[in-house]
Structures
1.
Amino acid sequence: MKNKRVDTLVSYLIITAGSIIMAAGIYFFKFPNNFSTGGVSAMSMILAAVAPVLTAAEYMMIINILLLVVGLLVFGKGFAFKTIYSSMLMSICTRLFEVVIPLEHALTNQKLLELVFAIGLTAVGSALIFNEKASSGGTDIVAMILKKYTNLNIGRALLYTDIILAVASFWVFDIETGMFSVLGLIMKAFVVDNVIDGINLSKCFTIITDKDQEICEFINRELHRGATVSVCSGAFTGENRKMIITVLNRGQAVQLKQFIKETDKHAFTVITNSSDILGKGFRTVV
């Protein structure tokens, strides 16, 4: 029970960090440059430009609240509290930034540099949130509703929406802003998945050795990981040797490589990267 509470606390701390990072990326880099790379932030910027009765941060908070209310009405108790928490925290932080640190212009005159930070920070933030089985709300809620009631290809529908918002920036703002928005949209398509993969990256070891007992003991006792051992034979020599398969994080991988080097210089080791490991000690199957 205690471990579950600790895990929940850590999960919410990660979501909190992700939401604040996203808010910083949106307020300090997207809003001042009008980078309309999709989602509620892009809608808010366009609305603030077309109907400047509210600021972009205020529009974003209102839209997110409305979407959360719709989500609660549609899904009831089944609507994820983590998504509500993340969406509201991100909106509140963006508004607080606006009140505490008002910006009249972009931080620098280097738009490409600011676009990199805008996409990078929001990608890192959303990756942290997604990794805790939550989302930042916004258009994700629309996707959840469409998925429940229609047979639409949700990913494609959201992509088309983002493209429309990016293209709209050509007319609402100017050609340069529109071009940067389209470029940002393309960057976003690749960066988020790569950041998530980087967070979950593990090292998969396949070790063929005669020192299987020593290596397995090191994996079990020093690294506190498991391993699978099987007998294999060389195609050329026909000699039987042991094959060890184990999966470790990056820090543990460095330790195991050094231990293998010291223990069995003739060991044949293949190390591959994977970000999709399911099982005890890694991701659970949901």
2.
Amino acid sequence: MASASAERSLGTTQARILQVILRADKPLPVETLCRVLEISRNATYQHVVALERDGLIEKARVTQTKGRPSQTYQLTEKGRATFPKHYALFAQLLIGLVKSRMGGKELEACLSDLGETLADEYLARVAELDGDELTIEVAAILMDLGYQAEAVPNRNGQGLEIRAHNCVFHDLAKEHEEVCALDLSLISHLTRKPIEHAECVVRGGTSCRFCYKT
């Protein structure tokens, strides 16, 4: 079924329409939807128009019936994305498998390589920057990646540090501390400087603090 958050944003009837279309083995006309949902054709059509407007469903082929031709509808990729995904579970299983087969050190090395690979996508944004400007831009990149990050004065009074108030890999990092290697590698590669994980929100800190090593 559609996720609970999707139902709250779409409304129960629209979420049910998505579910009915998802389960069908072919695109469905409005007539079929109103019969399954047991609501009027006009009400069903209004929901269909709204879902199409929001990019969750799209027109498919026109079918010929005993009466007039009927327009059918199917889910878009955005519509399919409203249903639950278990990426976190997959990541948990995958990291656990890699660690059991290769060991913690090799897992850490792999995650560090992933951090560098991710950083490569943003190097153009920081290529001409240095000092505080560089730190501020790296914090902005982390924001783009889902971290609630900011560049703040370092507690030793020397320049800025990056402070992230959440961990986008929180559940993974809680079980596998090697996951933090990805963050450290990402930030180090972007800033071109060695980074110290001075505080970790998963390990009891109030935030994750990333400081330049002195």
3.
Amino acid sequence: MSALQYEHDALMSEHTYEAPQIEAGRRLHGGFDPDGQYISPRMKVRGPALEAWIHALRERGGDLMDTDSSLLAGIRYPSAAQSKLLLKEGLGQSFWNTLTITGHIEARGRVLAEMEFPDFQAVVNEDIGTMALGHLHKGLLESHGLDEGGEPGRGIGGHDEMWFALRDLAFGEVDYPEPVVPENIARPDAEDPPASIQEPYAGIVRFLLNLLLIEFRAERAFALAETLLRDPDLFSDRRAEAEHAAVLVDRIRQDETVHIESLRLYLGEIRQVELKSADGGSLPGSQVVDEYWGSLVHWATVEQPRLVAEQQRKLMTERISEHPEAARVQQAFDALEETVAPGA
């Protein structure tokens, strides 16, 4: 077996941890080395394998898909300043809901460990046996799914339970009702352009692109969560717990960095190969990826933000109306609305 080919069990293997990760009474994935440094789960072989595949892709003249979370650097609603105001005014339910919803959405990611992915070789002209692309169904997507949704059967939580744990650290016991979790945060399939390669392989490309966009959105949410948790003006009665909650956010970020790099690798490999077209011919993978990506980015940066802002504005107004000084808080809240994207 070469350094570019791996079996399922190897890609799923774990490091030997000096101590497990246990937070807020929850057994979580990963663990710690003898120096107390956090180690992401299932990285003993997966980590070196990803490095090897990236090196091989670049040796062939390709590279990771050229994109990052900065493409979502638009106006945020509510803004970081608005979120801080709500917390200072005793309206913490909005941030609590955000952390809770994030945990539930992460739990859905476990579907990656349960889905049966067809061998992508069937639609690629080149041999992909030594590419990451040839290992999607051999543990790569499964490990991604377990990172997100954990292993409930073994009593080990993934990012879902990590978000619940850090929420509980920061807020302690509260009586907020469970929030409504959006049914779908990816773009509806009906809005996708017509497939130029056969299904289900076109669906896999769309799935990977949507997943990458979701990871970018999560990456930007991490920054807001950490900012609020580390703000010395907030959580004054649970300052130490909030600081530790921010540490958990950073551990999740460490895990998710692997996911983003992996997805950029898979898509970079697809962009470099020749795909079998639906009409029996062939076409460059870059054509398929870029066509879907352009349409998806337009939805994520133009259409969806407007809809989300409208929904959030209505929700925030309803929540502020419950404050005894609603008019004052609403005026201050509106004054903090972003009109220019952060960093613009």
4.
Amino acid sequence: MTSEHDTARRVARWLEEGPLEPPDAAVRAAIRLAVASPRRSRRLPWQGGAARRLTSLLATAAVAAAVVIGVVAFASRTSVGPAAAPTPTASAAPALTGSYTGTVAPNSASTEPGAWRLAFISVELLYTNPSGGTITQIVTVVGPNEISLSPDTACAQGTVGPGDYHWTLTGTTLKLDALNDPSPCRKAVLTGTTWTRQPGS
């Protein structure tokens, strides 16, 4: 059997000669020496199976957190297109809400002349002719001081519309100007007079 002293001499000789690879005898001797040397286990209490499972769970959680952070970061970098333009709101302008009276003169649209009444309520415009007949139309706010009325089904010329109007309210006086209205009947009424807001409305 090769002693440790013989092994040491062979290693010293090998180092002096400066070979490029270690001799087989030296390698085998080193392996035998390493195997024969007693070793003590330094396992700590938390290095058991439960600790390994905990470590695995922590690693899995870390990976999941990294994925979530990556997704959030990617989403924050993703460009978002411009917001869609707001659609017109079906509503009477708050400043217009109330009842108004006015006198419509004789006109070429054959609309009944006399005292008319307008009422802006919620999303509707009610206008009542001198005979007591009431016409209802939907009001849509389309811009500052601008409203659009639903198609006119009461005109003698048949269903026409919608009609767009600009309004001006000065004190209790309302003035309506037609921007675009294919209904001559409605236009004759709404623009044929200035309207006076009724007290308490």
